[in-house]
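Ticket #346: bound-state structure for adenosine-5'-triphosphate.
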Amino acid sequence: PVVLGIESSCDETGAGVVRGGRLLGHALASSMDEHARYGGVVPEIAARAHVQALRPVVREALDDAGLGFADVGAVAVTTGPGLAGALQVGLAGGKGLAYALGVPLYGVHHLAGHVAADTLAHGPLPDPCVVLIVSGGHTSLLLVRDLVRSPIAHLGDTLDDAAGECFDKVARVFGLPHPGGPAVDRAARTGNPRAVAFPRPLAGSPDHPYDFSFSGLKTAAARWAEGHAGRALPTADGAASLQEAVADVLTRKAVAACAEHGVGTLVVVGGVAANSRVRSLAEERCRAAGITLRVPPLRLCTDNGAMIAAVGDLLVRSGAEPAPLDLSVDPSAPLEYAALHPVGAR
Ligand code: ATP
Ligand code: MG
Ligand code: FE
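RESOLUTION: The complex was predicted; output attached.
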């Protein structure tokens, strides 16, 4: 069946159409610009923007696929984690559509969506694979077996800030625009990654071999910027050095996890997987270690509806139980299973 996926956990309203592992169409709207002057996403503004964007975005995704509502065989929607009000808008829309069309509804974990995004570009995930998920709110190293059937094992997580959060907050201190990640990436192009010796938090920690910590790095970058009070800030050097520190810790631990667990494939997903240095260093280190690297194309790294449809499609094809219509959002859902109602929940 054709699966329509809906994403509304943060400031992106996304819809995607997937059948049999193939992306047929997608559309995306963002309220990013409306948040820019506040320096971060304002939940109420995001929720209102979803209300406005949801119908046109769903319509556009179906148009893009050359399909109509009558062709939709299942609806998948993000139920968490994310902003409560923003999630509610997408879930209400998804429920309404599923009910009106008489098709099953699936509640999808947003982070499983990030993981599944890669399958739209590179096909089914090998079992097992190590997944580095690096986004605005999360940073985890996972051991993934069957994404929709098996529990997801966490090899490590961030103990404080997420990598994306570190980029976003440091960008603000550097005077770069919101969202900070892409701005740091751009600024870093002309900078020297060895200009500032920023720390590599938990890099060699025996107690936390696969955990991350980015709040100390954030503070170090802020201190460095403050140290230039009254003088011009060499932003490009700071950005390049910050990016190098983040990419170094992320890829070092991810490759070590593959080696220790005898896993031949590393998958890097989430918004920070769009970072040019994270991508190039992951490539370099995986090649040296004989590990196959998979990273989705840029537009599938950041939030989108296609990735939610991708999980829905996997659920449908695995014979998962659809969700009841009284399904609710879970703004802080832990990543244990890809769906709220996993295949033969165990
Ligand atoms: P989560 O998925 O954890 O709920 P989110 O959905 O807000 O959070 P994503 O959309 O996956 O996060 O990613 C957004 C994050 O990715 C932001 O922190 C943004 O700054 C970061 N990001 C996007 N592009 C880049 C880039 N080129 N370099 C570094 N960071 C980037
Ligand atoms: Mg976003
Ligand atoms: Fe996300």
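RESOLUTION NOTES: Residues 10-12, 303 surround magnesium ion (ligand 2) (CB under 6 Å).
TICKET STATUS: resolved
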